[in-house]
Amino acid sequence: MNSRDRFLKTAQLEKADRPPIWLMRQAGRYLPEYRELKRKYDFITLVKTPELASEITLHPLKRFPLDAAIIFSDILVIPEALGQPYNFRDGGGIQMEYSLSNKSQIEALDDSAITEKLNYVSEALKLTKKSIGDTKALLGFSGSPWTLACYMIDGGSSPDFSRTSQFAQRNPKEFYLLMEKLSQSIIHYLNMQIDAGVDCVQIFDSWASVCTESNYYSQSLKWIQAIIDGLKKPIPVILYAKGMNHCLNQQLKTGAIILSLDWTISLKDAARETNNQCALQGNLDPQFLTTDPSTVKKETENILKMSESLKGHIFNLGHGMLPTAKVECVEALLETVTNYRYG
Ligand code: CP3
Predict the structure, then answer these.
(1) Ligand 1 site, residue 141, Cβ cutoff 6 A
(2) Which residues of the chain are under the pLDDT cut of 50?
(3) I need a surface site. Which of 93, 146, 184, 340 has the fewest CB within 10 A?
């Protein structure tokens, strides 16, 4: 069974020979070949140059037996295309060029010609698809409207995104306008990715946990549901909502068919919670990849033990790869998963 078939079978809730595996933020600071390119080009140039973005997408596939490639890009390309550029703070973290704080700034976001402005992502996907053909699954992605709003309203990385939650509470009309603009832009963006050949898309709601349980639907899930409804073709959608394991059933109502879990819930409990209706993705704590190969093997086996009884399982990390991840730990993880077979 080739990697793409293994991935697609699992995403369609059929059993494959073993769980497919890919890693969140699989391109990145932990790989010397990425660091080498970063010496020559800044991050935004890498993202915006299709040949380079495609080359970086393929880095981890050249090294490791992964079943899927996620396109090298960033969730912040959407705010950038709307007219709110991003950059990096010296000490780490995101800095937006300005913070959204009033109605006129939201009205000024230019949501016309999104696919033209983001055509470089389409080109990078097409180049990548040409290289991998039908051997590996190709994943596209987007941030959720809520998570993008967090960066846009808070103006960059924040410990609690309190400006965003306050803005949403105090200015419901303006917040609604922003969410409409973001959702429509993301629909166009993901449909462009589908046209470019992605097999599946992941929606990152990394800051979902800023929402209270009672506001989660209206502030975040509702907009994700609108996006999934707006996709031109019924492709599998993976939803990742960090810190929201108490709301898995609410997440399923969006139409996502795979829920990606952080490491704070066991796959077994998540399957029970969701009545084993969907595939689950995850959920090794990325910190383990900074330890040693035997610890990684043991922790990976713990997760694999639970895989058997799931409707479907895609092996992944509970969040993005850390810059301090050790290549030998990634190798131990991959060896353990790729040698595993369902009984
Ligand atoms: O696996 C992949 O490499 C796919 C591409 C990808 C990146 N970012 C590349 C990237 C994906 C899927 C993302 C998603 C993303 N970006 C999210 C959602 C997932 C998550 O991690 O919660 C978020 C919140 C962002 C915004 C963002 N971009 C952050 C918070 C950072 C780290 C900033 C820092 O200094 O700590 C980035 C930068 C980024 N995006 C890197 C990569 C490879 C690291 C860039 C570098 O330092 O060279």
Answers:
(1) yes
(2) none
(3) 93
